[in-house]
Amino acid sequence: MFRLFKFILFIVLLTSNNSFSQEIALFQQFNGRYDYLAIGNTLNPSENNIERDYCDILPESQAELLLPTNTSIVAAYLYWAGSGVGDQEVSLNGNTIFADNTYLVEYNDSTYGILPYFSCYTDITDLITTNGNTSYTLSNLDISETLANNIGYCGNRTNFAGWCIYVVYEDINLPLNQINLFQGLDIINRNVREKNIILDNVNVLDNVGAKIGFLAWEGDSLLNYGESLLINDNIISNPPLNPANNAFNGTNTFTNSNNFYNGDLDFYNIQDNIAIGDTTVEIKLTTGDYDVNGNLQADLIIINNIITVLNSQLPDATVLINNINLECANRQITIDYTVNNINSTEFLPTNTPIAFYANNELVGTSQTVNQIEIGSSENGQINIIIPDNLPNNLEITVVVDDLGNGIGIITELNELNNEAFQDIQLLEIEINPLQPMNNCDEGFNMAYFDLTLQLDTIDTNGEPTSFYVSLEDLQNDANEILNPSHFQNSEVPQTIFLKVNNQPCYDIYYFDLVVENCPPHIPEVFTPNNDGYNDWFNIQGLYNIFENHKLLIYNRYGTLIFEGDNDNPWYGKANKGINNTGKTLPVGTYFYVLNLNDSNYKTLTGWVYLNL
After folding, report:
1. How far is CA 284 from the centre of its chain?
2. Which is it for the CA torsion 270, 272, 276, 277, positive or negative?
3. How distant, in Å, are the alpha carbons of 1, 340, 347, 378 from that of 371?
4. Cα–Cα distances in Å, from 529 out to 393, 580, 591?
5. Which residues fall within 8 angstroms of residue 107, CB to CB, at 6 or more apart?
6. In angstroms, how far apart are the furthest CA atoms of the chain?
7. Which of 17, 114, 436, 480 lies in the 20 to 30 Å Cα band around 325?
8. pLDDT at residue 60 above 90?
9. What is the pLDDT of residues 419-440, one digit of tens each?
10. Cis? peptide before 240, omega within 30° of 0
11. Which among 220-229, 327-336, 371-380 has the top mean pLDDT?
């Protein structure tokens, strides 16, 4: 893809206040074993330049279509034109035809003022395919009211009407050609005496059989003042039908006729005017010169369309973005795309490069896998990580035949159609905090929590929810907490992630599970009689919770008889004192001092009754 070249048709206009035109531009392109044929006729009974009082047109006229044998119709277009602002409905072989579009051009005559002219066109491929080779009659092109209401047309002898049919056809015996059909409505006259038209990036591979055709209106055979048609600065002609000094003279090259009054349906072989390797073709049209008396004379010529047939065996790579899949809370995107070689005259080779841009920053490259034949396509997919420096709202551009630096390796028919664009917004997700959940330590800093209570603090809109112990698990839909109403923590504190569906993505919340040392519950009595029930001084919420506690037991005389900790609870026996060590103590009231060694709690004191 050589971006220095542009496949467009542009007109270099000499600015003037005396004319108005609709720029001729590329209308349709055909690539294959194609050629074209044109038929048509005038509705002028004679050349309007001869008799000044002539001011009417024929009600209809005919032309014969004779396509070569063993050909098939690809496309057909009907054009009709005349003086005035347009007649958008005509008849062809009794069929009512409506214009797809109308072009207008104006000529500001010094005597009669502004005189508009029109040209209409419509696609008649189905009609021509159905009827094939036969005689075609155009009727109901009526400009009589226009001529009657403005004497300028007949007074200036620029009253005309006519029609033409272009047929593009396929013939398997033809070489691979590129047909470019340009159309609009442009004018040269005494005010604008020259037009330069540049056909850019034509990529001529073989000039044999190259030709160019024109449909023009209002040319006169008797007006040849400074009139010329040049291709690449070479005057082209087809004498005696189209002499070098009078190219637009009411002729039809296809029928070798010179009575296509005030219309020209001509083509020229230009193989001697272009060379293999040419990338541009310049067309120049001129009119106007001074007579022997020093008066400027010029023919009014209205260009309706230009058609070229060039042998250009080249691919034409285009690309479509079929889908861009976005992942929630992830800057990775998946692009599904299709590389086409539809409008081409040669296969697209394997390993044609493809570049992927985000806001014009290269983010990925790929290439075609197979040779893509004429008229075929290839699907592809690529995963791309969008860099963190780019915003969430961005434009994705896919360019085929691009090495990633704007340079391609394939010469194509059209170098300006290699890109596809799509705007996207990454599905970034805010992670919203919730209040922590607190519960009492049930041992070793663990507790059970009902996680579903957090659902009462948010609006889920009835959408499904799920809990996870990590953000990664949430994003991957892995290791969901199966019983969130009875969940035991595994660390302190532990963060829980909540996922709430919210199409097209989801919402994320998080909260901490906090395990607290709650106040222990100290019993007032215990019975160490080995009956398996209440045999020890079981202080609820103490053991394996306040792991560093110290328990001191005193008798009624204030003597320390037992000292315990987390690994040594009191079973009613003494481990202090000389006489009572290891013996079960007598029934009675004992006093405890419990130091929890927790900054949140003071030392607890009280009594307990030991009963056997």
Report:
1. 38
2. negative
3. 17, 11, 7, 9
4. 77, 17, 20
5. 18, 19, 114, 115, 116, 117, 158, 187, 189, 191, 300
6. 154
7. 480
8. yes
9. 999 999 998 888 999 999 999 9
10. yes
11. 371-380
